[in-house]
Design brief:
Blueprint lengths: L6 E7 L5 E8 L15 E5 L21 H23 L1
Antiparallel strand pairs: 1-2, 1-3
């Protein structure tokens, strides 16, 4: 990012438009701004008209961890399927 000694601000918002966090830095050339927050839906860069932004980096979003109820359902389906197969083979 380049500018003429201005203040640069990065703001992150969730899907409802609520501010999740922000960071600012004096732009003396080559400044780096970053935010690591869960649930970012959009971001805003605020500076003057001479600010340039490049080299964006986005991290992949990992899948949510299944809840215990989902594990119990998976286990009961697996056990039920195994019981059906065993019963058919016994006939």
């Amino acid at each position: 990012m380049q500018g003429a000694g201005t203040l640069l601000t990065l703001k992150a918002y969730d899907v409802n438009g609520a501010l999740l966090g922000s960071t600012s830095v004096a732009d003396t050339g080559g400044a780096t701004l970053g935010l690591a927050l869960a649930g970012i839906n959009r971001v805003e860069f605020i500076g003057n008209g001479s600010t340039a932004v490049d080299d964006f980096t986005f991290n992949t979003v990992s899948a949510a961890t299944p809840e215990p109820g989902a594990w119990a359902l998976l286990l009961s389906c697996t056990l039920g399927g195994s019981a059906l197969v065993r019963r058919k083979l016994a006939r």
